[in-house]
Amino acid sequence: MNRTHFSMQITEALINHYAQTSGDYNPIHLDKQAALSLGLPEKIAHGMLTLALSARLLTPILAKGLCVERFKIKMLQPVYVNDTIEVTIQAVDETNHSYRLIGFKQTSLKKVLQGKIKLNHLS
Amino acid sequence: MIDQRFEKATSEWVKLSVSEDELKTYLITINEQDPLYTDKAFAKQVGYQDIPLPPAYPALFWQSFSLVWLEDQPNIILTTQDFHYNKPLIINQIYHGQITLKKLLTRKDSQLAIHELAIYHQSHIIATLETTLFLTRGESS
Q: Among all residues of chain A, which has the CA nearest to that of B21?
């Protein structure tokens, strides 16, 4: 596997860019006041943005002739603007093409996501 | 907060397709540069029918739907996303999809809304996405 880990700051520019790409303009991602009204300390990143970034770790495996059968991710903590996240993919059973994803916030070490992935050979 | 009567409600069927340019915009946003998603010859050599969509891309299909039960719900947070694929989704293929509000779990000031997006090509189901959303009352709802 070529790439098993990444660390990345989730900037305001990235969140705004994802909002434009996805069409998801939910104010909790873009308006600090909306986030504060929910008791959050800051705007939060789209869960799907964090997921999309994490899914990049699968690409080198898929490029070897595998495809996704199941990809399940639980978001455990909000990722706030300017948080830096670290996400790792680990093989659970490489012969069965089972993997897991784990993501943490770099500063607090709080787990932000965990996931299970099952791949298959392309038929 | 969603009215309980919407449990089991379904959306309209929607035509879903992703062009090369739409995929490029997504790839730039997430800084994905692998040729699997840009080079048709490479994708075919690997064994795909055409350039595949990245595994998380179908979540963007949600924006093609108008879900009456989510109108005026500003406080929505994704908690779980579960993709099941029978086949890879590829660019320029025409799919049809429908979202169902499968289950609505209501507590005092919050809800969990479990949705399923079913994606078909012709009469075959290609993929399903189970999406669990957390909704809170908040100030603005």
A: A21
